[in-house]
Amino acid sequence: MNPEENSAGDTPPDIPGLRIESIAGRGGMSIVYKAWHFALGKYVAVKVMDSRFNASARDVRQFIIEAKAMSEVDHPNIVHAMEADCVDGRYYFIMDFVGGYTFGELIARKEYIVEHDALIVAETVGEAMNYAWRSHRMVHCDIKPENIMVDVDGSIKLTDLGIAQAANIASVAESDEVTGTPAYISPEQVLGEALDQRSDIYSLGATLYHLACGRMPFPGLSNDDTMRAHVEAQWQAPDPRTIQPMMSEGFVRLLAKAMVKNRKNRYQSWDGFLDDVRLVYRCGIPEYPQGVISSIAI
């Protein structure tokens, strides 16, 4: 552990078989460490509940749900969890280590990405969540730039299933608390309705809007007003071409249909969304290596 990165509450638990080397990231109530896994012979990430917080039973349950969700999915573009446990009163789980950067970090440096790369993100995340939906009826519930990563080999990884739900088991309607990130949240998530794949399609649409335009659909608002803007008809995100005039008409239509407020008029499945992503490719977008970002770097 680098002593400069260590402070009160940062000290990781002593986990057998691991050599924890540094802090890789932080969440609201957790710390992610980079560690060497002796048995696997490779680096892994270890997500540990932060000892500075007095975790409630609900917090612990949510942490375990995240570990379980990430262990069940097996897709090359979704970060996979390998094991979970509790040592010295600290809950943790071990997952794939992604050594690159998030799209949140990327756009903080570059402001936006070109349409070609946004389409790669659209297809890769869409295929990953189509798998999660078909195999586990899973809804991510928090697709956003910070939860989409580019690994050192250029591959895209979707991470943080902390509030993911199985559509046939759970519903946000069971809780009074709105979960998700206001800038990218779907209208039905704001309203506390049961969720399905259409909610994630909306969040991915809002994410792609931010990535390709360099600004969120509804910037400069409070969290409450942002969520209201996603729901109420009088609030509409500006035409992306007023921000990026070179954006293709096909891509603009893709974003518009993904972000329809009434989910009955939105894309009804990941298959439909992916069909249109590929249609935009065929209308003048160059060939690309599938699922790999090669033209951008942080």
Q: In words, what does this structure look like?
A:
The chain is an alpha+beta fold and 298 residues long. It has 2 domains: 3-96, 2-Layer Sandwich (Phosphorylase Kinase, domain 1); 101-282, Transferase(Phosphotransferase) domain 1 (Transferase(Phosphotransferase), domain 1, Orthogonal Bundle), CATH 1.10.510.10. It is built from 8 helices and 10 strands. It has helices at residues 57-72, 103-110, 115-136, 187-190, 197-213, 223-231, 249-258, 270-282; strands spanning 18-26, 30-37, 42-49, 81-87, 90-96, 101-102, 138-139, 148-150, 156-158, 165-166. The strands form 3 sheets. It has a 5-stranded antiparallel sheet, covered by helices on one side. Strand 2 and strand 3 form a beta hairpin. Helix 3 (115-136) runs antiparallel to helix 5 and helix 3 packs antiparallel against helix 8 (270-282). The chain is globular. The two termini are 25 Å apart. The model is unreliable at 1-6, 168-175 and 286-298 (pLDDT under 50).
